[in-house]
């Protein structure tokens, strides 16, 4: 498979302040974005791709340069997080579609977030950054696309938190979204997921180096707490059988235990430490808090009175994909959405892919998602 | 149901040093214990009950007085942790059996552990406490019982880590154990469980107040990290449907979200904070680390070459109970043990109770465990 080639994250400043659900507004919002493929003359081939909690605008291709603000180190020169799905001949075929990917509002990879400078003070926002919602993320994406001269989307697609954004798009802008691709996502995080997210945030906020969120420029940041948050996240993204297949109970040292409390004994322990260390190098703790809170708040039934009332607004064709082993965003939630849409007489496809890698399947099971997504976008099975 | 009445935790000092798997030995081991019922003249009615990670010797009845060493505050005047199972007419019927319960080696509730004074230095052991194993716990229990004049046990029983001790007893002292009751336990923690335990330990050890384990007497202890460790543990002890039934996505404030990052919004978030706060008041962080490590190390197949080789030694009748919704100690492990014992021609019963509360079922599903345990102990269905 070829990639879209070397790409560069670009930046666009919104001309107007962005109003937010919490009642505040953000001045001077910058959006980091990438695009792949060619915009059709009548602008009818645009697909917006929305990323999940720890993603960024670099969804496909090979990153050319590090982005500027909000990160403590540059991008690795690496493939985009959904490169297997976006490119020539891939699920989101860039020979056909103009794919746009932005870093979400509140992010730390180029879009305005808590690590950005507050124009009112000249200092990073930190904990003074307004609390944002998935609807705010969509509002930001909408305002950004308007600057590109794009008012209508052929499709919005995303996994996990990205799928929430796709649903929100279809509800908030029904006549401007042709289709949504909602993968490993839900209309409301289930209570155990609420708990995992709360634990991750607790871990960050209990780290004294978090300093109430005002750690920028202090030379200290809550790496210890962020590391534990990432470990928790990581295990919830994998399935128990997937972990067993990958690591089993293999010891680091081979056959013998070393009788140590503080050093990793099992391979999975070492893996967790590695994951934590690499995450804290590239991600901002406050962005983690804000984004985790936004996905926890997301609740279509609460916002609209009922799931029926929320989905009644949808005009987009809907594709739902979930994975049998995903216990964080279980297939049941997709089925609920599908059932309600069907009951409302709206076009929906619901696919449950039998795969062992848990929530991470949406990033891994490219081969099996590709024909489903391609056919759906081409309206072959709708 | 009546209780065994007001009980007092007692203490016994072992006369000999205790050799350990790691090659070191512990001098001056004290054991905290309680007993319920009456020892038969020929001492043939003794059941040893073994507790899980966060338990203590106070298994039944109403605690009379707080224990002395190793805890930062006394026991609450409260029922024992398995009071529903131990008492007159209960599963472990104290009209029939003499039930003995000890705080495990490495504990913080009266038995020698990392918060105890090292006789060699006059200071608390802290991280100089030797790394212990489940076999060491059993060695300590064996030495303790010898001091009571008890060499043979009618049964050893426990849930979770307590069940591991029961299995270890049957393997290490086959001719001195008549029966074992192994509830919600396993012959080796599954890899996801290894990961959860590692995350909990990381959370404690990354707390700067842990101070490399030398926090005693400093006025600071790793409460923040311990709190997160307990939150992680708590969610793994419950099932996702159980959490959903108990909390759903109910907000603290009723109908409205308050747009706050740092305060609990959902009831389950508040519950987690409460659980964390109450746990750190009663439990020592180093004991958590050592005990978590011991249960992670437990691996009968690794220790004996194979599960068959390990269980070949067992002479005790074996009762296994697991719970359908327990994803930390899933029924599959009990089934494996049962299959191997059956294949070896040894007497075993395996019961899977269909119940929604996850691993915590072993503490909650008393009514359904009671007839199974009673009949097994009376050899009615063996």
From TrEMBL, chains A, B:
One of its GO terms (cellular component) is cytoplasm. Substrate binds at residues 230, 360. It catalyses: L-homoserine + acetyl-CoA = O-acetyl-L-homoserine + CoA. The active site is at residues 160, 326, 359. The keyword Hydrolase does not apply. Residues 46-364 form the AB hydrolase-1 domain. Pathway: Amino-acid biosynthesis; L-methionine biosynthesis via de novo pathway; O-acetyl-L-homoserine from L-homoserine: step 1/1. Gene3D superfamilies: 1.10.1740.110, alpha/beta hydrolase (3.40.50.1820). SUPFAM superfamilies: alpha/beta-Hydrolases. Pfam families: Abhydrolase_1 (PF00561). Its EC number is 2.3.1.31. One of its GO terms (biological process) is homoserine metabolic process. InterPro entries: AB_hydrolase_1 (IPR000073), AB_hydrolase_fold (IPR029058), HAT_MetX-like (IPR008220). GO terms for molecular function: homoserine O-acetyltransferase activity. Keywords: Acyltransferase, Amino-acid biosynthesis, Cytoplasm, Methionine biosynthesis, Transferase. Belongs to the AB hydrolase superfamily. MetX family. Transfers an acetyl group from acetyl-CoA to L-homoserine, forming acetyl-L-homoserine. Homodimer. This is Homoserine O-acetyltransferase. It comes from Actinoplanes campanulatus. The lineage of its organism: Bacteria, Bacillati, Actinomycetota, Actinomycetes, Micromonosporales.
